[in-house]
Each structure stands twice: as C-alpha cells, then as structure tokens.
Amino acid sequence: MGAAAMMAALSAFAADDIVERGRYLTYAGGCISCHTEDVEDAIPLAGGRAMETPFGTFYSPNLTPDMKSGIGGWSDDDFVDAFWEGVSPDGKHYFPAFPYTSYTGASRDDLLAIKAYLFSLEPVPKETADHDLAWYMSSRIAAGAWKAVNFEPARFEPDPSQDEQWNRGAYLVRHLGHCGECHTPRNAIGVSQADTEMAGSTFGEEKIPNITTHRIDGIGRWSASDIEYFLDIGMLPDGDFTGSSMVDVIEDNTSKLTRDDRLAIASYLKSLPPRESAED
Ligand code: HEC
Ligand code: HEC
Q1: What rounded mean pLDDT belongs to the chain?
Q2: Does residue 264 line the site of ligand 2, with CB under 6 A?
C-alpha cells in the first residue's frame, strides 16, 4: 500500500471510529427518547415527539441531516453552540425543554462525535411541528428572558480530589445523561436547585424519586451493584420493575452503556450526601 492509500485507509478508519463513538454518546445523552416520535415504526431521531409540560406542548425537531427540515446545513460551531449556549444557528434562544442546561457541560469532542453520528444517518425530510405553548411562553423572547436569569454556560471540570470513575460518573449524570432534569427539584420558574441535587421532584402528574443516599427518602440502602443492575435492566432491589419515564431512560440510554459507565454513574450517586425529599 502506498503512503496516500494508507492515509486514506487510516482516515476512513478514524471517521468510522468517531461515528461509532458518537452513536454511543447519543445513547449516553438520551437523545433518542425525546427526538423520536411516539408512534409505531417511527424513524429514530427524525423528531416529532410531543412533550407535554406545564407551559404547553413542545415538539422535538428532526435531527437527521436533511438540508431543509433537519440539521444537514449546520456547521460544527452551530452544533456546539446549541448545547453550550442554547442558541440556534440564526441566534434564537432555545427553550429549556431541550436540556442544554445540562448539556452545556459536555465537551466539544463529544458533541462533535454526536454530530458525526447524526450526519451519518439517512436524511429524513420531515418538518418539525410548531410548539403549542401558553401565551407567556410562546415567544423566543420568553426563552431568552428565562435563560438570562437561570442559565450559566459552563463546561464540566473534573474534580482532582476524586478518582477517574467518580469524574466519569459526574459527567454522565450531571451533563450528558441529564438525570437532574427529572430527579432534581425545580423552583417555580423551572430551574434546578444545586443544593437539592437528585432529591426528587414532581413533573406535571409524575412523581420522580429521590436518588440521593438518604436511607428512607432516597436509595441509600442500594449498593453500587444494585444501581448498576437497575440501570441495566430496570429492576429494583425488591424485584419490582421501574415505570413511567424511567423506562425510556433505561431503554434508550443506560442499558446501552458499558458496565463500567453504569458503575461510574453508581459511584457518583453513592457519593451524594443524603438529602430529604422536598415537600411539595
Ligand atoms: C428532554 C427532551 C430532549 C432531550 C433529552 C434532547 N432534546 Fe434536543 N431538543 C428538544 C426540544 C424540545 C428541542 C426544541 C427546543 C426549542 O424549540 O426551543 C430540541 C432541540 C434540539 C436541537 C436544535 C434543533 C433545531 O432544529 O434547531 C438539537 C441540535 C438537539 N435538540 C439535539 C439533541 C441531541 C444531540 C440530544 C442528545 C444529546 C438531545 N437533543 C436531547 C428536546 C430534547
Ligand atoms: C425523564 C425523566 C427522568 C430522567 C431523565 C431520569 N430519570 Fe430516573 N426516574 C424517573 C422516574 C419517573 C422514576 C420512577 C419510576 C417509577 O415510578 O417506577 C425514576 C427512577 C429512578 C431510580 C429508581 C429510584 C427508586 O427509588 O425507585 C433510579 C436509581 C434512577 N431513576 C436513576 C436515574 C439516573 C442515574 C438517571 C440519569 C442517567 C435518570 N434516572 C434519569 C425519571 C427520570
């Protein structure tokens, strides 16, 4: 093989590699649950999932590389800015129904791997439906005002006093896996509270459990391997199976991860201080 052919073969290998890595990270980010319509035979990641919230119904956009209805025309920076800053390529503010509030901590490398994976998908022409929101939320100005008060863009910084496993877990839980979007209580305008991280919440009708190490309110009696097993197959230590929106999290995210990554998540959760569940 000549040098040029060798280089071409190597870069094709590297390209496959980034797509594979991106596919894994797309699972770790739980993108599929939100960006796939809730109908039989829906095309994964082509958008159209209706998401009911107290502010109205959001419809997730098409993430396939279709030039017109998808993200086929986006540059690397367009893509990264959506996650880091919560802004669209034409400068519009996203609503926090897209959890950029967690994804802001993701690394550029990981985000560009996700982009490479999305761009490897078959382009699907499918227009995104308009959101159907309460009047006070129905403009991008409301999204911008919310952001100005509640959002601080910041990358994940590893904590040098903790080991690698803990840091990997912290990155997955707080950022890519956005577990706190559900498990951390919010104040009246919908922002998660750092001092009550993972202490449980309610979202509309849904009760979301406390997953801190509190022995009664939380999962303090679970071992790290109980947590790992739960994230793999959805079974609680008492033999029951989990329900509601956690089923999607297990199916589209944590069951697709390596055992090491699930153990990293467990290590991070085991390190959280015990917190009582908020009264609400
Ligand atoms: C909790 C549901 C949810 C999850 C999880 C989620 N998204 Fe989204 N996403 C949305 C919603 C809703 C919007 C539209 C926000 C708006 O219009 O303000 C959106 C918007 C986007 C956009 C902007 C698209 C456009 O056309 O402007 C991109 C890109 C995106 N998401 C990618 C991803 C990726 C990649 C992941 C996984 C790492 C992900 N999303 C996870 C709900 C979600
Ligand atoms: C879309 C919202 C949502 C997200 C995101 C989410 N969870 Fe959950 N989780 C739930 C709900 C709801 C339940 C309770 C399910 C039930 O009622 O059976 C739950 C249950 C759990 C439980 C079992 C607790 C118990 O006492 O039964 C654990 C552990 C858990 N989640 C961990 C995680 C981790 C780790 C992540 C991030 C990778 C995560 N969850 C992301 C909604 C979510």
Answers
A1: 92
A2: no
Ligand number nearest CA of 97 is 1
Give the burial class of 136: count Cβ atoms within 10 A of its Cβ; 0-12 exposed, 13-18 middle, 19 or more buried: exposed
90 exposure class (CB count in 10 Å sphere: 0-12, 13-18, 19+): exposed
Residues ≥6 apart with Cβ < 8 Å to 127: 62, 69
Selection from 178, 190, 200, 184 nearest residue 248 by Cα:
178
Pocket flag, ligand 2, residue 97 (CB < 6 Å): no
Place of tokens 């034409």: 90
Which ligand ends up closest to the CA of 130?
Answer: 1
Instruction: Kindly indicate the confidence band of residue 5, based on its pLDDT and cuts at 50, 70 and 90.
Output: confident
Say whether pLDDT at 188 is over 60: no
Residues 6+ apart with CB under 8 A from 33: 49, 245, 248, 249, 251, 252, 253
What is the pLDDT at residue 10?
67
